[in-house]
Amino acid sequence: MVTMNKTDRVHATRELILTAAERLYAEHGVLAVSNRQISEAAGQGNNTAVGYHFGTKADLVRAIARRHSAPIEELRQRRLTEIGGSTELRDWIGCLVRPVAEHLATVGSPTWFARFGAQVMTDPSLRPIIVEESLSSPSLVRIVDGLYRCLPDLPADVLAERTDMARQLLVHMVAERERALAEGTPTPRSSWHGAATGLIDALVGLWLAPVTAHPNGGIAAGGAAVRSSVGAAARSRGSARGGGRSPRDKR
Which of these, 144, 198, 193, lies nearest to 167 by C-alpha position? Predict the structure, then answer.
């Protein structure tokens, strides 16, 4: 019989709580789930276990996000090494999309992280936590910088608008696939790799779509103005989860 020491028991308890909280938050929403429900789902007789181990609900949400950020960060870094200084928009979008898909494929089904992220991103009080965690990712900042460099002539206001669109598409399409897999309902693509390819196709189209002129006949300043705002935009919008097909997509 294996006996765990106190440190091992604490770690095991924290893992049980994190798993239970991630699942319940994903399935029911963060505000609809109490610490008592999480403790019960984690098999903890003490209803104060969540507060004891994690503190506030915000602290627990941050811990769940960090549980997944390390493996995703490693996958992003690998992608960045592969593409080097690419000038292909598709390469940079692939760096944004594929690490998340690969991580979820590795975790196995059912997963809850994508739906957890979608729930948190719609909560005004908790959304800043995900944004802060994204801003702490060196690879994500580099990816957004690289993506923006592929779009030097896109007007600044359109760049900001499409960044928001790309974030919504990535967050919610990944969550929708995860939900379908958990419920056993059909999905358009048979694998996470295929789903990532479809999402990359859509995001390339979104970023390269024509820009309609403003009603006054002009558009916001592009070119140098956009390039000068890239650094700030990449960091302030670091939570964004986002030409022709790159050979790397065929892997």
Answer: 144
The CATH architecture annotation of domain 1-55 reads Orthogonal Bundle (1.10)
Indicate the pTM of the whole model. 0.82
Whether residue 95 contacts residue 83, with contact meaning beta carbons closer than 8 Å, is answered with yes
Delimit the domains of the chain by residue range: 1-55, 64-250
Q: What is the tens place of the pLDDT at every residue in 122-149?
A: 999 999 999 898 888 999 999 999 999 9
Residue 46 neighbours by CB distance under 10 Å: 10
Select from 177, 174, 194 the least CA-distant residue to 186: 177
d(CA 166, CA 160): 10
Let me know the angle formed at the C-alpha of 240 by 174 and 212, rounded to the nearest 5 degrees: 100
